From TrEMBL:
InterPro entries: WlaTC/HtrL_glycosyltransf. It comes from the Bacteria. Pfam families: HtrL_YibB (PF09612). This is HtrL family protein.
Length: 306
């Protein structure tokens, strides 16, 4: 990467892979090799790339980029990612012990897996650190397992370009679901998804972005709630809409939806706040609601035994 004090117009992509043993989960399983298979596809992007991972995988990441002819890569081997923010990990662990039964989906990773939430929260720390050595005026976070092996980008050539776009605000989230005015605790309880895990941040705003996001994680935890990367960005948008901006986009399609060299495959749009679904999903949702109400009833009735 070039060495000067002037940030050029462009995007440095930032990502990380910190294994949390998903192979051993009962649901939502995914092996480390699966993640690397996903990464090897989108690693074809021509952008500067900064990667954070464990020492055992640093050389593997470097080799993938070298094999693709991408020499503009920095890989950081993090000895123990658990020590990056020990306070946050400890607090998330405590809350997951007590909060899960109050979630509508108590077996999902968000209410029950503190390491899952913690590793996702580290993406903002990675962005802050990457800003110290990036040569571009914008940073983009892309998850290591982006596009899950070809959901939106079927052909490997789809990544054979340098992604850039004139994003207008310090932080841009890619939104796939209309956001109403529900209170945060209700959004957390439903584990709703409004934003993709990918986002843009001006390089000179990365430190402030990190501080804002972390403060919202702590606010959630103080209220006995825990989440991955959904509600803290929502809190940012609601608190500082002049800084935190949202653009409509499909789950993985932002590389084409907002590009100065590519055209969107579809018109970027969000799902409505209230979804229209078929009878099977409606019945499944009704069953989920009844199970949640029954758990709530049994919990609340203990306050004043019948």
């Amino acid at each position: 990467m070039q060495e000067n004090n002037t940030l050029r117009n462009g995007i440095t992509v930032v990502t990380a892979f910190f294994p949390i043993g998903r192979t051993d989960w009962e649901t939502f399983t995914r092996s480390d090799d699966t993640y690397f298979n996903y990464f090897e596809r989108w690693a074809r992007l021509h952008n500067d790339l900064i990667v954070f991972t464990i020492p055992q995988y640093a050389e593997r990441v470097e080799q993938i980029r070298q094999n693709l002819g991408r020499t503009n890569t920095i890989v950081h081997a993090v000895e123990d990612y658990r020590k990056i923010d020990k306070e946050l990990l400890e607090r998330m662990t405590q809350v997951c012990r007590t909060y899960a039964p109050f979630s509508m989906f108590p077996d999902k990773p968000e209410p029950s897996k503190p390491y899952y939430n913690y590793v996702i929260a580290l993406k903002y720390w990675c962005m802050k650190e990457a800003a110290k050595e990036a040569c571009t005026d914008k940073l983009a976070w892309i998850d290591f397992g982006f596009d899950h092996g070809g959901v939106d980008y079927k052909n490997l050539d789809d990544y054979d370009f340098e992604w850039n776009y004139p994003f207008e605000k310090p932080v841009t989230f890619f939104q796939n679901h209309e956001l109403g005015d529900d209170p945060i605790f209700e959004i957390v309880r439903r584990t709703d998804t409004y934003f993709q895990g990918k986002f843009i941040c001006y390089t000179n705003f990365a430190e402030e972005f990190y501080q804002d996001i972390r403060s919202h994680y702590i606010s959630l935890i103080r209220c006995g709630l825990v989440d991955d990367d959904q509600t803290p960005p929502i809190m940012c948008v609601r608190e500082r809409p002049d800084i935190y901006h949202c653009l409509p986009s499909g789950w993985f399609s932002m590389l084409y939806d907002y590009s100065d060299v590519k055209q969107p495959k579809h018109t970027p749009e969000m799902e409505p706040e209230f979804l229209k679904v078929g009878i099977v999903l409606r019945l499944a949702w009704a069953k989920r609601c009844l199970k949640t109400l029954w758990r709530e009833f049994k919990y609340q009735v203990k306050r004043y035994p019948l």
